């Protein structure tokens, strides 16, 4: 069963097709201009696809990258705006988020810090009780501790409420242990779409003496050769290899970078 399904093209996004199960957490990753914001806008219904279609079961909330908000609203006005704009509104859920992140209630949105504004937009989005929450680089204005806390709280929202979360990010190191699914875009095309645990089990890095061929069978993601050494990242799924070769699993960051390097 899928809660989000897409098969779309729009501007630089070309024939991107995927399905996401309910309650999943998907990281949307890719270089600048690879089409992440475009895809999220199309999913949110803000941009019509040039061709193809999307389908989302249930209510959608979308927090765009630049977090547009009325700057002269005070924080409580933003929640009141949320209450009036949404047929379903959970004031406590929104208000609790602001309390948790100590957002000053008396200030106008324009006087809040970038991180505090992020919390207000997240509170607004969560208050609408979305089945699917789309976040475009939600962490970009948060400090490292706040990033962790926000991610932890969002995961709690996912597990408590069965919400499906899709977020774009450039900080690949932060998606390990968070995202159960990876969508990797490059030049508007989907390079990788898979379960993060399965992807990590498949990708193995082999290091050994210089050789034009890897020591195992399987699709080679990346090959690098120095004068005396060769390295192959192979979707082989196994670390069994004869000496002098060595094999190890890679991190999600190494996996993403290797796929991006391959097409660079
Ligand atoms: N109105 C438009 N008409 C044509 N192309 C556009 C339009 N808007 C955006 N694009 C192009 O679509 C491509 C994808 O842009 P998008 O903002 O989706 O990338 P992104 O992956 O979110 O990038 P970043 O990481 O820098 O935020 C870019 O090359 C951009 O110039």
UniProtKB/TrEMBL annotation:
<dbReference type="InterPro" id="IPR003593">
    <property type="entry name" value="AAA+_ATPase"/>
</dbReference>
<keyword id="KW-0067">ATP-binding</keyword>
<feature type="domain" description="ABC transporter">
    <location>
        <begin position="3"/>
        <end position="212"/>
    </location>
</feature>
<protein>
    <submittedName>
        <fullName>ATP-binding cassette domain-containing protein</fullName>
    </submittedName>
</protein>
<dbReference type="Pfam" id="PF00005">
    <property type="entry name" value="ABC_tran"/>
</dbReference>
<dbReference type="GO" id="GO:0005524">
    <property type="term" value="F:ATP binding"/>
</dbReference>
<keyword id="KW-0813">Transport</keyword>
<dbReference type="InterPro" id="IPR027417">
    <property type="entry name" value="P-loop_NTPase"/>
</dbReference>
<dbReference type="InterPro" id="IPR003439">
    <property type="entry name" value="ABC_transporter-like_ATP-bd"/>
</dbReference>
<dbReference type="InterPro" id="IPR051782">
    <property type="entry name" value="ABC_Transporter_VariousFunc"/>
</dbReference>
<keyword id="KW-0547">Nucleotide-binding</keyword>
